[in-house]
Write a structure and sequence with these properties.
Layout lengths: L1 E2 L2 E6 L7 E7 L2 E7 L5 E5 L13 E3 L2 E3 L6 E3 L5 E3 L8 E2 L1 E4 L2 E5 L3
Antiparallel strand pairs: 1-2, 2-12, 3-4, 4-5, 5-10, 6-7, 7-8, 8-9, 11-12
The structure holds FE2/S2 (inorganic) cluster (FES).
C-alpha cells in the first residue's frame, strides 16, 4: 500500500532484532534492517560490489556485512565501510507506524 510516497513494506515484527529482510517493489529490490537497538533502516538490496542480495548478510550494530566478500556498509547512510565494497548503497527514509514499516522511495 502506498500513501503520500510512503510504501508499506512489512510488519515491524517481520524482522527480528539484528536481522535484515528483502523487500521487492515493482522492479526494484531493497533490504530492510532492524538493529539490536530496535532501529529500522533501508537500502538498495544488492551489494554495489557484485550483484549479491544483502538479505543474506550480517547486521552488526549499524553495519551490514555482505555475505559474499564481507564488504560492509553503514545502514543509516549506505556508505561503504570495508573493501571490497567501495561504492555506497542508496539509503531510504524508514518509519514505523501502527506496527508496519514504511519506506519513502526518494526518486
Ligand atoms: S559482493 Fe558484496 S562485497 Fe563483494
Amino acid at each position: 500500500m502506498e500513501f503520500d510516497g510512503w510504501i508499506e513494506a512489512c510488519s515491524a515484527d517481520d524482522i527480528a532484532l539484528e536481522d535484515v529482510i528483502r523487500f521487492d517493489y515493482g522492479n526494484r529490490s531493497f533490504a530492510i534492517y532492524r538493529t539490536a537497538n530496535n532501529e529500522y533502516f533501508a537500502t538498495d538490496g544488492y551489494c554495489t560490489h557484485q550483484k549479491v542480495h544483502l538479505e543474506g548478510g550480517l547486521v552488526m550494530g549499524r553495519l551490514i556485512e555482505c555475505p559474499k566478500h564481507n564488504g560492509r556498509f553503514d545502514l543509516s547512510t549506505g556508505e561503504a565501510k570495508r573493501a571490497p565494497a567501495c561504492t555506497a548503497l542508496r539509503s531510504y527514509p524508514v518509519k514505523v507506524a501502527s506496527g508496519s514499516v514504511y519506506l519513502k522511495l526518494n526518486d
